[in-house]
Write a structure and sequence with these properties.
Number of strands: 8
Order of helices and strands: EHEHHEEHEHEEE
Number of domains: 1
Shape: globular
Largest sheet: 8 strands, mixed
Distance between the termini: 20 Å
CATH superfamily: Dihydrofolate Reductase, subunit A
Structural class: alpha/beta
Oligomer: single chain
Strand content: 25-35%
Helix content: 25-40%
CATH topology: Dihydrofolate Reductase, subunit A
Length: 185
C-alpha cells in the first residue's frame, strides 16, 4: 500500500494561507534538504481545484525554484474538482479525478508506486484525513507572526481525530517540522 502524505507551512500565529508572503527569510538549507527528500519519494501528487488553478498559473512559467518546478511540472498530478473539466487542465501531466474522491484515492494507494502527496489543498487533505486515507500530516512552523490570512487548517465541526507524533525536528533558522500520523485504537 502506498503512503499518502500532506504537508503545510504555517506561521506561529496559525496562518496557513499564502506562505510565499511570509516564509522567505525563514526558509533554510535544512528545510530545503527535507523538502528534497519528500520530492525524491513522491511520484504522484493530488491537488484540489483552487491549488491546481494557482499552481498551474505559476509553476509552468517560473524559473524561481528549478528543483521544485522540475518536480511539480513533471510529476503526474490528479485534480479533485467538481467544476473543472479534463479539457481545462492544460498543465502537463494533469488528470481530472472522475467520480468520488475517496474510492479513487483508495484505489490509487493500492497500485504500485512511490508516495502520493496532497499539495496545496487544505480541504482535500482534511477530507482524506477524516476518510482514514491520509497516513502522515507534516506541519512546518515558521518563526514568524504573519498577522493576516486564513488561520486554520481545520474547521469548526471537524470530527475529533487523535494524532500521534511520528517525527519532530527543527532547523537553524527556527523552523519546527512535526510529522503526525493518525493514532490507531
Amino acid at each position: 500500500m502506498r503512503k499518502l502524505t500532506a504537508g503545510y507551512f504555517h506561521s506561529v500565529d496559525g496562518v496557513v494561507e499564502s506562505p510565499n508572503l511570509w516564509q522567505f527569510d525563514a526558509f533554510d538549507d535544512e528545510l530545503g534538504a527535507l523538502l528534497g527528500k519528500v520530492m525524491a519519494s513522491v511520484d504522484t501528487v493530488l491537488l484540489g481545484r483552487k491549488g491546481y488553478e494557482e499552481w498551474a498559473g505559476y509553476w509552468p512559467k517560473t524559473q524561481a525554484d528549478q528543483d521544485f518546478a522540475g518536480f511539480i511540472n513533471g510529476v503526474p498530478k490528479y485534480v479533485a474538482s467538481h467544476t473543472l473539466t479534463q479539457a481545462q487542465l492544460s498543465w502537463q501531466n494533469s488528470t481530472l479525478i472522475e467520480g468520488d474522491l475517496v474510492p479513487f484515492v483508495r484505489d490509487l494507494k493500492a497500485k504500485p508506486g512511490g508516495e502520493i502527496a496532497v499539495m496545496g489543498g487544505f480541504s482535500l487533505a482534511r477530507q482524506l484525513l477524516f476518510a482514514g486515507l491520509l497516513d502522515e500530516l507534516t506541519l512546518i512552523t515558521h518563526p514568524v507572526v504573519a498577522s493576516s490570512g486564513r488561520r486554520h487548517l481545520f474547521e469548526p465541526g471537524d470530527p475529533v481525530t487523535h494524532l500521534e507524533l511520528l517525527d519532530c525536528t527543527h532547523t537553524s533558522k527556527g523552523n519546527v517540522v512535526a510529522t503526525y500520523g493518525v493514532r490507531k485504537g
